[in-house]
Amino acid sequence: MVSNLYAFKRDLNKRGVFFCFSGPVSQDLLVEIGSTLKHKMKLQEAHNLTAIRVFSMVVEQAQNIIHYSAEKCPKDNLLTETNEELSIGIIAVGYEDEHYFVLCGNRICNKDVERLRDKLIKLQKMNRDELKKLYREARKTGPGPGSKGAGLGFIDMAKKASRPLEFNFRKIDEEYSFFSSKTVI
Question: Looking at residues 162-166, what average pLDDT do you find?
C-alpha cells in the first residue's frame, strides 16, 4: 500500500483533483474543509463568487453523505458529541477545463437507486428557469417521504452548476450500491 500511495497521488493530480477526503463526514469536518478550500482557491486567485459556489457544492454533497449514506462508523467507534453515528463517504474537489468540480460518493441501499436515478435524470433535462421554478415549488411543499430536506440539495446544485449533474450507481452486492456524483461549477 505504501508504495502505491505516490501512484494514487499522481493519478489525483492527473485528474485535476487538489483535495480529497474519504471517511466519516461531520459538520466539524465541513468547517475544516471550507477553510482549506478557501485558502487553496485564494492561492489560485479564484473569483470570490466561484469559491463560494464550490464550497456550497461541497456542503450540499457532504449533507447528502451525512443524511443518506448507508455506511456508518460503528457505534462503539467514532461518535459525535450527540452520540450519533457518523456517515462515511468520499468528497473530492478539482479543476479541469477552466472549471472547478466537486465529486462525491457514498453507499446507498439498492431499493433507493431507481427513485434517485429518476430524480437526477429529470434534473439533467431541465434548464435554469425550470430548475428555479422546481426549487420554489419544493420549498413550498416541504420534505417528501424519506427526505430530510425537501429534495432541495440536488435542485440547488443543478441550478448552480455550469453543466448538467453527472452521476453513477455501481452495484456492490444485493443490498448496496455506490452512488457517485460530479458537479461542475
Answer: 97
